[in-house]
Amino acid sequence: MKGPLFYAKILLFGEYGIIKDSKGLAIPYNSYKGALKSVANLSGEAKKSNENLVKFYEYLKDLDTNIVSFDLDRFKQDIDGGMYFDSSIPQGYGVGSSGALVASVYDQYANDKITVLENLTRDKLLKLKDIFSAMESFFHGKSSGLDPLNSYLSLPILINSKTNIEPAGIPSQKEGKGAVFLLDSEQVGETEPMVNIFMNKMKNEGFRRMLNEEFVSYTDACIDDFLHGNIKSLFGNVKNLSKVVFAHFKPMIPSAFHKVWEQGILTNDYYLKLCGSGGGGYILGFTQDYDKAKESLKDYKLEVVYRF
After folding, report:
1. H-assigned helices in the chain
2. Where does the record place the GHMP kinase N-terminal domain (predicted)?
3. Given 3.40.50, 3.30.830, 3.30.230, 3.40.1350, which CATH number is that of 6-167?
């Protein structure tokens, strides 16, 4: 067997804010992908993945069937037959490796599944998000369900609030000088500890106020600017967002990148922000002149995501 491909995702804006009901914008990232496959003799990564699927199967057995039910017998049969998730999506990098796996399993084994081809009303999108949230919680302890949703639909998704999500039309890429890029921290980040740090910070009234008054308002402004192609305004808001994250989310920024982060704000060559929960993996960069950013960051691995 060989299942369909599911792609990585990038949350351009909204990390942490969407936990507190602010806006978010996620886009598929087709450079990385995964699919369910089977082999007769499992070894190495495939064997590890197969063992992980056994644990996932046990978890899905106990999931509330009012939310979603699966053809578990067939799932177990396929796992026993050497099924694994063959993926190029780096794990712990904030680009949705578990989301693509969840989307694959739902696509193959869910009963009465909502398909990509039907008319995706808001209610159906929210139902999918709830299903994916319940499924992906196996990997992260608590999941918004957005990564698998993005991977499953392979569409940009605009999160207006927890109960209001919609497919988004994003401006088509131009062959300009500006770019959104990924900066490889070359270390793995784990979602759960980062989210726990955030939840502890949320107990502090000053942090909550900063989140609402600064972080969320800059995030929302960035999304509006990006969707409407207001590039000049976008970079002003991204700079402000980068400053706020540097000031208040330091534990989520790998310490080796504190100087690099600050350097971007001081020189205006690029601005950095978290990609996913942080703590490692990729860091997202925005620049009006990619050649200049590349020169400034020549010691690091960069990948272009979107051109302005």
Report:
1. 44-61, 72-80, 97-109, 122-140, 146-153, 191-201, 205-210, 216-228, 231-248, 258-267, 290-296
2. 83-147
3. 3.30.230
